Amino acid sequence: GGDHTITYPILQAVAEKHGPVGLVHVDAHTDTGDIALGEKIYHGTPFRRCVEEGLLDCGRVVQIGVRGSSYDPDPYKYCRDQGFRVVPAEECWKKSLVPLMGEVRRQMGDKPVYLSFDIDGLDPAYAPGTGTPEIAGLTPAQALEIIRGCKGLNIVGCDLVEVAPMYDVSGNTALLGANLLFEMLCVLPGVKTM
């Protein structure tokens, strides 16, 4: 997809059919800002708009890999105040995320879940082709653990956003993004894999 703004109208449509959904959100940023340059809708605000419209089941929202610069001394306060589980990148360093995803599966239960993956959740050493890179991110192996860890969930939609070809000189970001999207297709309900 494009930037993370696209997830907002997608979740409006998903919630119209399924009601408020759980969310597995992989990103360097929470994307719960309120206003930027006088605008309420931009790639840093989609999940705040979703909360305001009741599109998310906030007790079933987990944000994984968040880190980076902030304009706020407590950048995760809004998310935690809504009931989101925030897993900062430093809690993911140097370890498998299989145990975390076991916890996430229990948290999500059998109700509808949406998976939203911002490529900047990964470290720019692996995915430099994005508009807001942040150091010290997730590895591709951890990305696979997260996505594969969603198998068995009632996934009603997913996206991968923020790949910016003009910054992707090597093409590695596009390759990684395409492979992660393939992995997402493989964990959708009813998909049979070998």
UniProtKB/TrEMBL annotation:
PROSITE patterns: ARGINASE_1 (PS01053), ARGINASE_2 (PS51409)
Signal peptide per UniProt: none
Keyword tags: Hydrolase, Metal-binding
One Pfam short name: Arginase
Gene3D superfamilies associated with the record: Ureohydrolase domain
GO biological process: putrescine biosynthetic process from arginine, via agmatine
SUPFAM superfamilies in alphabetical order: Arginase/deacetylase (SSF52768)
The keyword Signal is annotated on this UniProt entry: no
Single GO MF descriptor: agmatinase activity
InterPro entries xrefs: Ureohydrolase, Ureohydrolase_dom_sf, Ureohydrolase_Mn_BS
Metal-binding found in the keyword field: yes
Family label: Belongs to the arginase family. Agmatinase subfamily.
Protein name: SPEB protein
Organism: Halcyon senegalensis
